[in-house]
């Protein structure tokens, strides 16, 4: 038996690994192993107040803290009978846009593009692609600043609260967001032009189902009260378990999800496939029309990268109008109307659909359940890697580590905040 190890992948968030078993030049098994121990946050919040829960659960992830906070707030407000003001809804949407821009720009420019243009990392790209590397950092900086203004901090902000906000941003801050969003549009346009020059790998292709939240009203967006599947199924968010069907596997501390017994995909690619015809902003629409190929996108997770770039552009185009709406809307904080209830919040985090579900009793959290996007994508990663490994070995290629890493990175997984390892074990 021969073991082949490569250096940890520095461009994936979290600590885990990929194990490939090859015997007599045939793939026997591929697993995504999650090494990090269980964090037990679902039990940690039991007995806490809803306000404490929001502060705890938003710390599940630094990059996606706004999505976790919004999912928690949405579920808890349903349980407590709270209907917030229009200004609160709009400000939350703006914070959500900020997170999407920050996360998508980091992944697209600095984590994914190096693979596709033939460099080991973003720093190595600087000489040939200086505008794209610097532009990606500028977009990330803007997204961080939006979250700082709306959520209170760039990481783990506390300003978004149950029933409203701690502080409403000033018109001066909102006007800066509006102006800067328009100024940055040419940067992501340039990044999308680069995509059009790339050769996209197809060694893993196979069709699957795609899941996302249904924003309603024929709108594109990142939240809703229903879950939408690409096979036409729609269910109320309170029935999320009909879609996710969580289970435990031996090789991982992370649970897995399957819809009707099969893996499914969440993330930007799922949102574009399910909702892309609703994108109406002119520049994002133009790039979507140029790059979207239904047959290819439904079979190839690599297109999640460009789907993120198109969403980023859509957010920048939407922000000026959103800011104008926020400035006109009236703000009113709202308090809880009851101390007992249940509620599930479903939002689209940058990496896909995120659920926070609660039971509140006597004003305290009695039960909680959280399902993150990467949990739902892990089985898909294994399936696509199995396809890739089989096809590449059949073609006589032995150096399959990088192609498998490219697949994993395309899903933009968030296991936590460290590095991953691909290990190929050859038998016979």
Automatic annotation (TrEMBL):
SUPFAM superfamilies: HydB/Nqo4-like
MF (Gene Ontology): ferredoxin hydrogenase activity; nickel cation binding
Species classification: Bacteria, Bacteria division WOR-3
Pfam family, one: NiFeSe_Hases
Residues that hold Ni(2+) according to the record: 61, 64, 414
Natural source organism: candidate division WOR-3 bacterium
InterPro entries documented for this protein: Ni-dep_hyd_lsu, Ni-dep_hyd_lsu_Ni_BS, NiFe-Hase_large
Cofactor or coenzyme needed: Ni(2+); Fe cation
Residues binding Fe cation: 64, 417
The keyword Magnesium appears for this protein: yes
Residues binding Mg(2+), per UniProt: 42, 420
Protein name (Swiss-Prot/TrEMBL): Ni/Fe hydrogenase subunit alpha
PROSITE patterns hit by this protein: NI_HGENASE_L_2
Keywords: Iron, Magnesium, Metal-binding, Nickel, Oxidoreductase
């Amino acid at each position: 038996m021969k073991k082949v190890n490569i250096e940890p992948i520095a461009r994936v968030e979290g600590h885990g690994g990929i194990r490939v078993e090859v015997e007599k030049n045939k793939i026997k098994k591929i697993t995504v192993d999650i090494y990090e121990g269980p964090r037990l946050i679902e039990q940690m919040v039991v007995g806490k107040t809803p306000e404490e829960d929001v502060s705890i659960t938003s710390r599940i992830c630094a990059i996606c803290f706004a999505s976790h906070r919004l999912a928690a707030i949405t579920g808890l407000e349903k349980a407590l009978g709270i209907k917030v003001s229009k200004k609160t809804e709009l400000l939350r949407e703006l914070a959500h846009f900020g997170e999407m821009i920050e996360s998508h720009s980091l992944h697209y420019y600095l984590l994914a593009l190096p693979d596709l243009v033939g460099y080991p990392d973003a720093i190595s790209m600087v000489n040939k692609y200086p505008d794209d590397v610097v532009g990606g950092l500028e977009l990330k900086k803007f997204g961080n600043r939006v979250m700082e203004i709306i959520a209170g901090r760039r990481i783990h902000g506390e300003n978004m609260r149950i029933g409203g906000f701690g502080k409403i941003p000033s018109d001066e801050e909102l006007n800066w967001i509006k102006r800067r969003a328009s100024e940055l549009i040419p940067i992501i346009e340039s990044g999308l032009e680069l995509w059009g020059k790339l050769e996209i790998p197809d060694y893993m292709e196979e069709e699957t189902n795609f899941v996302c939240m249904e924003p309603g009203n024929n709108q594109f967006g990142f939240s809703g009260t229903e879950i939408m599947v690409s096979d036409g199924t729609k269910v109320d968010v309170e029935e999320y378990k009909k879609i996710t069907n969580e289970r435990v596997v031996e090789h991982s501390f992370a649970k897995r999800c399957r819809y009707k017994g099969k893996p499914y995909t969440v993330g930007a690619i799922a949102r574009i496939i399910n909702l892309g015809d609703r994108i109406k902003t002119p520049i994002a629409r133009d790039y979507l029309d140029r790059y979207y190929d239904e047959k290819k996108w439904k079979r190839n997770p690599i297109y999640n990268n460009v789907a993120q770039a198109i969403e980023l552009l859509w957010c920048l185009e939407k922000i000026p109008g959103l800011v104008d709406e926020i400035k006109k809307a009236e703000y009113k904080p709202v308090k809880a109307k009851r101390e007992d209830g249940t509620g599930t919040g479903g939002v689209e985090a940058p990496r896909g659909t995120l659920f926070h579900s609660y039971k509140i009793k006597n004003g305290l959290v009695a039960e909680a359940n959280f399902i993150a996007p990467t949990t739902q994508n892990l089985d898909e990663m294994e399936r696509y890697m199995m396809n890739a490994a089989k096809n590449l070995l059949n073609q006589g290629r032995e150096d399959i580590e990088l192609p498998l890493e490219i697949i994993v990175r395309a899903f933009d997984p968030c296991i936590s905040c460290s590095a991953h390892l691909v290990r190929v074990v050859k038998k016979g």
